[in-house]
Design goal:
With 192 residues, the protein is an alpha/beta fold. It is built from 9 helices and 7 strands; from the N terminus they run H-H-H-E-H-E-H-E-E-E-H-E-H-H-E-H.
């Protein structure tokens, strides 16, 4: 929850104690929270609890709902990020928000950050094979949304361990490593 909104709610709570509370003020607050389609509730407190705002799971949502959520998050100064986006949803959102970053391989959409804040940390994403690229691209977009430096190192599965050895300087410089291996899942052990 934003600190301004938090303060407004605290003020309202104080007014509850006062029998002279203005019904119009309550109605205005209720309207502000109901600008989203029915059933949509944003977790305004997630950043405090988890360190990051919530991600929009787009699968099954109407494009108009996604547009409403993107708009509301933008008004709150938050960077919207959606996963499992269909090409049809992406087209509608791109039309409404031309600056949105669309990654059709990852099936994600994210708004660029509002500030020129420098990225933090370095997280390489190791993908065993090219069939793992959709998941690797989604991890890449997630890390970029989190304002992390990230890159994909692809096709370094256990069938070609010499290719992984070539990446050791990159791995040694990492703050964390994401490993994606779809079939047998042996690559995380090899990287470890």
């Amino acid at each position: 929850m934003s600190s301004d909104r938090h303060q407004r709610l605290l003020d309202l709570l104080r007014e509850c104690i006062d029998p002279q509370i203005a019904v119009a003020r309550w109605e205005a607050e209720a309207r502000e929270t109901s600008e989203l389609p029915d059933g949509v509730m944003l977790d305004d407190d997630r950043a405090r609890r988890c360190g990051f705002h919530e991600v929009i799971f787009a699968q099954g949502k109407p494009a108009s709902t996604l547009v409403s959520i993107f708009r509301k998050l933008g008004e709150q100064g938050r960077v919207a990020f959606a996963t499992r986006v269909t090409p049809e949803q992406a087209a509608v959102i791109r039309e409404e928000f031309p600056s949105v970053i669309d990654n059709p391989v990852a099936r994600t959409l994210r708004m660029p950050p509002a500030t020129g804040e420098s990225a933090i940390g370095y997280v390489p994403i190791i993908a065993a094979g090219t069939s793992d690229l959709p998941v690797a691209e989604e991890a890449l977009e997630t890390l970029r949304w989190m304002n992390c430096n990230a890159r994909i190192i692809a096709d370094v599965g256990v069938a070609g361990p010499q290719r992984l050895i070539q990446s050791l300087p990159v791995l040694n410089a990492a703050d964390a490593i994401v490993v994606i291996a779809g079939m047998e899942g042996a690559l995380p052990s090899v990287v470890g």
